[in-house]
Amino acid sequence: MARKSASRASSAARSAAPKVGFVSLGCPKALVDSERILTQLRAEGYETTPSYDAADVVVVNTCGFIDDAVAESLDAIGEAMAENGRVVVTGCLGAGPKSQVVRDKFPDLLSISGPQDYVSVMNAVHTAVPPAHDPFFDLLPPQGIKLTPKHYAYLKISEGCNHKCSFCIIPSMRGKLASRPVADVLTEAEKLVRSGVQELLVISQDTSAYGADLKYAKGQWRDREYEARMLGLCDGLSQLTGRDGQRPWIRLHYVYPYPHVDHIMPLMAERKVLPYLDVPFQHASPKVLKAMKRPAAAEDTLERIRAWRSICPDLAIRSTFIVGFPGETEQDFELLLDWLDEAQLDRVGCFRYSPVDGATANALPGQVPDEVKEERYHRFMEKQQAISAAKLQQKVGQTIEVLVDEIHDDAASVGRSWADAPEIDGKVYIQGLGEGSKLKAVPGQRIQVKVVDADEYDLFARLV
Questions:
Q1: H-only helix segments in 351-443
Q2: What is the per-residue burial (b if ≥16 Cβ within 10 Å, else e) of 212-234?
Q3: What pLDDT score was predicted for residue 67?
Q4: CA max distance for the chain
């Protein structure tokens, strides 16, 4: 699902600095691209503004993965063109076959470029309005501009993907796997933690493949060498400590269930890395997975999950699935429901299959009628809701650590446990953290709470 956020970064530049409007759409990987562009704009003396009228130029970072995201991106571009007229488009909709749709619909765009093409964006902005020669750019925070709350940040470890999943066009938009050197990633992570970040969310298109394109080259960080592979990166991240002396939360996303993921489990069992894995299983039927051309399709994922939990019993697993994929029979779907019963995943999202322009799955036989997709979607969600509700009920009475996201005086404050990633998972609602509380908690603080109730997705707690 696309996400829209207009930046309101404060500026140390003089009041005469040129102003840029900025709209950021899409996934966390696109959000990191936006943060990097905004950091470069700030360093060159540009100010950002939430007003189309005040902006000298508007940058729209688009999402182009599914039809709803494309529609939202086109709407955002159209709004920027209507309200301002000087628009630079970047991101996933600016690459691959869909870029021509943008060019045809908006021929007067100043520029259009693909994801992580920061040079093209800056060149287009420079052409529209020259940069200010701002003597204060050294006042930039070392971690750059962030669009997330101060206490958590996305840490992107690679670009692109080497897989050829039949329903996906991300490789055509973001290219092949391009991992960042391990020392660069660890240095960025250290800067973020020193600035007060309490949670690092490690993201990529395939975190399990990190470093494969670098042939797992080692990098020097602090006084040790670390290998550019998943285990080496996690080992380095586990050495971080914040200003308060606490180890930050390290959360892993987009992890494929390869055998070497087993090696991370001891770090999770020791809480050096959060016992949380975001694994895009997508389906359970071998026939459907083969049609999807999924990596690790031949793996016995149930056995792998059992092995992980034998080492780290507290492991929380989230995943996403597609129902109604071309060729999916009722037998395939029933197999998926049985797999859910066995897997007992903690957090699950489900999508009804929809064609994506340029995806090879569009040509597959056995297209599933929309009414069947809808019926299977609701059966799937009913099954998973029951699993989730039962698992959360098991936590009632437990004392858990929670990272506070929001403090409310007139309602329950909001936090998250190790099992909850921001925006996609559940929440922990905490009574008694507002005005008059004995504990003067602030967002980004980690506290101990006792779970007193639960529903299908969320926990309800009070201070210990």
A1: 370-393
A2: bbbebebbebeeeebbbbbbbbb
A3: 78
A4: 67
- Across the chain, which has 464 residues, the per-10-residue mean pLDDT values are 37 61 88 88 86 92 83 92 93 82 90 86 87 49 68 91 86 85 94 90 94 94 93 96 88 92 95 96 94 78 94 95 96 96 95 87 92 96 95 95 89 92 92 76 90 94 88
DSSP, collapsed to helix, strand or coil, labels residue 153 as strand
How far apart, in whole angstroms, are the C-alpha atoms of residue 400 and residue 379? Answer: 32
Residue 329's closest CA among 367, 297, 363?
367
What secondary structure does DSSP assign to 62-79, as a single string? E--SSHHHHHHHHHHHHH
Partners of 24 in the β-ladder: 5, 61
Which residues contact residue 119 at a Cβ distance below 8 angstroms, ignoring those fewer than 6 apart? none
Adjacent-strand bridge partners of 88: 59, 111
CB 91 within 8 A of CB 25: yes
Q: How far is the C-alpha of 177 from the C-alpha of 168, rounded, in Å?
A: 15
CB 318 within 8 A of CB 424: yes
| E-strand stretches of 269-420 | 276-278, 316-323, 347-352, 399-406, 413-416
| Per-residue pLDDT, 12 | 35
C-alpha radius of gyration, the chain, whole number? 23
Residue whose token pair is 């704009």? 41
pTM: 0.76
Alpha-carbon distance 95 to 145, whole Å? 25
State the residue for tokens 């597609």: 322
Tell me how many degrees the CA angle 441-442-448 measures, rounded to the nearest 5.
Answer: 45
For residue 349, report the phi and psi dihedrals to the nearest 5 degrees.
-115, 155
Our measurement of the distance from residue 115's CA atom to the centroid of its chain's CA atoms, rounded to an integer in Å, reads 15
Q: What is the pLDDT of residue 162?
A: 87
pLDDT value at residue 145: 64
b/e string for 178-198 if b means 16 or more Cβ within 10 A?
A: ebbebbebbebbbebbebebb
List, as residue ranges, the binding site for [4Fe-4S] cluster.
27, 63, 92, 161, 165, 168
Among the listed residues 315, 409, 414, 332, the one whose alpha carbon sits nearest the alpha carbon of residue 366: 332
The binding site comprises 27, 63, 92, 161, 165, 168
Q: What is d(CA 263, CA 258) in angstroms, rounded to the nearest whole number? A: 10
Nearest one of 410, 417, 406 to 460, comparing CA atoms: 417
